[in-house]
Structure formats: C-alpha cells, structure tokens
C-alpha cells in the first residue's frame, strides 16, 4: 500500500516538474515581449512630450495619450493590437512576480512591498492593454485619460476617511519616486541584467539610459505624490494630477520648456532602457 502511495507521490512530482518546465517555456518570452512593449509606450510618451516642449508639434501626454496618438497614425490599429498583446504580456509577468515569486524575493516586509508594487504594476499595464485593444477596435476615447487622477481622487474623497486614503496614496507614490532615484544613483538596475552578455560599450550606454530614465521617473512620481498629498490636505481633488498634467505643470514653470523637455527625454531614455531589459534581463522562471 505504501509503495503504491510512493509511486503516486513521485508521479505527482514529475507532473509538477513538467508543468513548471512548460510554464518556464512561455514565461521568459512573455516577460521579454512585455518589457519591449512597456519601453515602446515610454518612448512614445516621452518623444511626444519633448516635441511639445521644444515647439516641434507633439503634445504633452501620458501613456494613454501616447497610445491614442499612435492609434491615429497609418497602421495605427494594427500597432494597437501588437501593443495590447505586449502590454498584457507585461501585466502577466508582473502578476507572476507578485504571486509566484520566481525570483525568490521572499515574504519579509521589503519583499512583500516589492511584490505588491509588481501587483499594482500588473493592474496598471493590464488596464493599458485593455485601452490599446479598445483603440484597435475604435471603441475607446482618444482623449488619453486626461483628468483621471482628479476623477478617482474625487470619488475616493467621498468615502469615510477618503482624504487620508488619497494622502496615503500620495505618500506611497512619493516613496516609490525616492526609490527610483536611489536605484539610479546606486546602479541597482544593472543587477538584474546578465552582464556577461553585455559589451563594455553597451554597458556604458545602458548605465546612462538607466540612470537618466530612473531619475526622470523619480521626478514624475515625486510630483504626482506631492500633488495627491496637497489634494488631500486641501480637500480639493482638482489638485490631483497624473503624468500628463504633471508634465504640463513643469511646462508652466520658469524655463518650463527645458524642464519638461529634460524630463520627457528622460522618460524616453527609460523606454530605451526597457528594450535593454527585454534583451539582457535575467528571467528566473
């Protein structure tokens, strides 16, 4: 009897290993496609915003605005289909990182915070994938979601303790911005790359792109967090701003064109860095 049970246990273990191997077969390409799609969106948003800053057309925009602009270009609907697939792939990989923990982050407070951030990232990029899919079918608005931060913060403020929730969200986003700045300063972003595959010249380029990109993201997240905290303190959801409004605010400052242009180009640099991640990141499945 025990021998029969042992055989069933071994059979179950072999089946689990086969399932894991099959998952690994598709998880790595899914992750790499996802990083490339994320990079493309960042490049589009950054370039369009930089063009607006320096007076070469374009427009101040966030991720959704960039997708909406691209959808109106020749072959835009086909491009939206491709990007939707890529964004869903990135969302799926983020969820695997959050729940399966393939990179063995663990379950301490720091690890859970990182995995929680991956979960939120998965939701955001999954929603962006849905938006791209709707654009491909012509069923989504081309407004790019301007004012979304104001809309959701106004709704949350109607809840009991809503101002505290909005303020806490702003604090978390601000802390995430500080983490981005620290990762750029300490070159932590290089640790996830397979440097044995990278030439010294490529490493120098990736280092610059990663640092500039993370510092630009730090500026944006710190500003978005600050705006949310101000909105909570003043009980005024109109103070809440997303990426698009944050870049527009930079444009209104002294030397605004240079400020916004620098941040926008930094976001584009981060997009190029995402392509490097798609190529060289170590994917543990």
Automatic annotation (TrEMBL):
Cited Pfam families: DUF1206 (PF06724)
Membrane-spanning segments: 39-57, 78-100, 164-182, 214-235, 255-276
Protein name: DUF1206 domain-containing protein
Annotated spans, Disordered: 1-20
Keyword Chloroplast attached: no
Keyword entries, A-Z: Membrane, Transmembrane, Transmembrane helix
Organism per entry: Persicimonas caeni
Domain DUF1206: 33-100, 119-184, 212-281
């Amino acid at each position: 009897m025990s021998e029969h049970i042992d055989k069933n246990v071994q059979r179950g273990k072999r089946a689990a290993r086969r399932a894991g191997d099959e998952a690994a077969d598709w998880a790595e390409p899914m992750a790499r496609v996802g990083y490339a799609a994320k990079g493309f969106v960042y490049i589009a948003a950054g370039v369009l915003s930089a063009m607006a800053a320096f007076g070469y057309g374009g427009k101040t925009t966030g991720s959704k605005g960039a997708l909406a602009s691209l959808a109106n270009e020749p072959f835009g609907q086909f491009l939206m289909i491709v990007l939707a697939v890529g964004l869903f792939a990135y969302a799926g990989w983020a969820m695997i990182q959050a729940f399966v923990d393939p990179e063995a982050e663990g379950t301490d407070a720091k690890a859970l915070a990182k995995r929680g951030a991956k979960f939120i990232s998965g939701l955001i990029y999954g929603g962006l994938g849905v938006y791209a899919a709707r654009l491909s079918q012509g069923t989504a608005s081309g407004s790019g979601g301007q004012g979304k931060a104001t809309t959701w913060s106004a709704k949350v403020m109607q809840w009991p303790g809503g101002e505290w929730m909005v303020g806490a969200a702003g604090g978390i986003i601000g802390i995430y911005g500080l983490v981005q700045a620290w990762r750029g300063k300490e070159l932590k972003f290089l640790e996830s790359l397979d440097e044995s595959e990278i030439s010294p010249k490529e490493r120098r380029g990736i280092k610059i792109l990663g640092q500039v990109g993370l510092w630009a993201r730090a500026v944006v997240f710190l500003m978005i967090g600050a705006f949310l905290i101000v909105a909570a303190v003043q009980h005024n959801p109109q103070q809440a701003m997303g990426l698009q409004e944050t870049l527009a605010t930079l444009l209104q400052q002294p030397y605004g064109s240079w400020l916004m242009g620098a941040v926008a180009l930094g976001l584009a640099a981060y997009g190029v860095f995402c392509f490097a991640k798609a190529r060289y990141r170590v994917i543990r499945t």
